[in-house]
Please model this.
Amino acid sequence: MTPDPGRRIPEATVARLPLYYRVLLESAEARVSTISSDRLAEMAGVNAAKVRKDLSYLGSFGTRGVGYDVDYLLHEIARELGLTQDWPCVIVGVGNLGAALANYRGFGARGFRVVALVDADPAKVGQTVADLRVEAFAELGTVCARERIAIGIIATPAGAAQDAADGLVGAGVRSVLNFASGVLSVPDDVSVRKVDLATELQILGFYQLRGANTALNTSRPA
Amino acid sequence: MTPDPGRRIPEATVARLPLYYRVLLESAEARVSTISSDRLAEMAGVNAAKVRKDLSYLGSFGTRGVGYDVDYLLHEIARELGLTQDWPCVIVGVGNLGAALANYRGFGARGFRVVALVDADPAKVGQTVADLRVEAFAELGTVCARERIAIGIIATPAGAAQDAADGLVGAGVRSVLNFASGVLSVPDDVSVRKVDLATELQILGFYQLRGANTALNTSRPA
DNA sequence: AACTGTGAACGTCTTCACAGCG
DNA sequence: CGCTGTGAAGACGTTCACAGTT
Model:
């Protein structure tokens, strides 16, 4: 069930797998059955050698002289990323952002389902957002157990983020996506990914000031 | 006005400056006037040598045997990131996410102001969101010129993102923050930063499957 | 002939360890 | 003595270039 833990996949590669997955989905929808590393690289906005090296960490899935079978590769990447499983998520903090995330259709990644919402504000508890009843923050432990929560999404104000993280960790959640600014303290067996609007804008500000462009992130020329 | 372009600051360092800035702000609010690289590193969840090397790219701002003056360092980082200037932003796509971003108080980074909203849906045009009137997507060029837009924030569905990017680029915008999934094609003098929920969740999925944790992103142990 | 898979070269980022300064 | 600033070492990531396979 779990992929072979013998192969160590570099973090940089892991971070690009979702990108390849998306590009491959587009190709599959366009009825393309086979794709070369050159074409995949072009569509993803990266170097072809990088594509080949990245994919080689997952195994030898290509055919020399031909390319990669789109459906097969999709399946392998999906398996590697756990997209074949179900990951119930809870959103902590149902303000503007939390509500928007709850309603976010294009949650894109299959398998990631928002199944519960909690908020510390008694006025919000009991309200319905995206067909879910908002529950009290104090119930977080109960909610996580009941819904078998795998991922906690923190969408609280910065000041409440550490409490949210502590609550999630206490409830046994080991993967956290943090939209609040500031640094979270968590035990080192917990994974945290941070998404911070202010940080991204500030990075753009730096390069705008310099008249230079950022290669730090995904896009392709022309 | 513009920082000395002679010093080349590594991208990895640029990406951490907003983090240091936030930590320093916290220290300043707590009336701390001087901070060591050790303490700053602890608060930011990174290695102390990294902090010193990063800061050394900006200049020699510390005092040996003492540490860094919090206010002075804040000012220097702010200058480097362009936080001392005003960056008018437009949000393209006023759905759940676009509206949430428009209302986002903690836009945290001073200087970044959302001053205009545009949407391709005629039903949305004319509505007021976050005290701003939604304007037609066709008016994007006019809007960007009128408001001297520096940064475009794309919050459209995936299918409309490339059109949004083309419109922004055509209007002379050279910094783009993209919340839509998929890869954008832009001229190579345009900076694009991408924020993608699905990607982040998929990365968490990978590590959850492996029982390992991600060092890829900001958090500190314990 | 076309394209993958990969060793080796290269470049970038991180960390160490200590000289240098206050 | 304490802490910064930095050369040097090491780890990591990217790209090249080509041998190997279909």
Chain B touches chain A through 86 residues (CB under 8 Å).
